[in-house]
Amino acid sequence: MKPEVQSLLAKAERSVTAARMLNDEGHADFAASRAYYAIFYVAEALLLERGLSFSSHAAVIGAFGREFAKGAVLDQKYHRYLIDAQDLRNIGDYAIGQEIAEDQADLMCRWAEDFLRAARKFLGN
After folding, report:
1. Tens-of-pLDDT digits for all 125 residues of the chain?
2. How far is C-alpha 49 from the chain's CA centre?
3. Are 117 and 75 in contact (CB under 8 A)?
């Protein structure tokens, strides 16, 4: 595994930890953002292991779908996690008058943990 991939997976793990802490302190909006980034870092790591790197979130999401979900290399639910987490992160970060509920942020943390486990297994780590 490339060192950069290991670094991204470690960053994803730290992001999930931070998301859990934020959610426990009643900051679900910020927890959702950290959970999204955990999921995003995992997707970036998997793509980078294949030599693919992108400069936008949309490009990462699209490439992950093409490279891993369409061919059923990994369960398609991980692509759905990435898409749904981005939508929830956008609400948490940018929506006025709309908030992320604690249970939504908790679900996003579970998605991130599930995706991280699957990525580590896939990468043999």
Report:
1. 889 999 999 999 999 999 999 999 999 999 999 999 999 999 999 999 999 999 999 999 999 999 998 888 999 999 999 999 999 998 888 888 888 999 999 999 999 999 999 999 999 96
2. 16
3. no
Predicted TM-score of the model (pTM)? 0.94
d(C-alpha 13, C-alpha 8), whole Å: 9
* Structural domain boundaries enclosing 45: 3-123
Which tokens belong to 125?
């780590």
> What's the structural domain count of the chain?
1
How many beta carbons lie within 10 A of that of residue 63, not counting itself? Answer: 18
Q: Which two tokens stand for residue 60?
A: 């990462």
* The 3-state secondary structure of the chain, one letter per residue: CCHHHHHHHHHHHHHHHHHHHHHHCCCHHHHHHHHHHHHHHHHHHHHHHCCCCCCCHHHHHHHHHHHHHCCCCCCCHHHHHHHHHHHHHHHHHHCCCCCCCHHHHHHHHHHHHHHHHHHHHHHCC
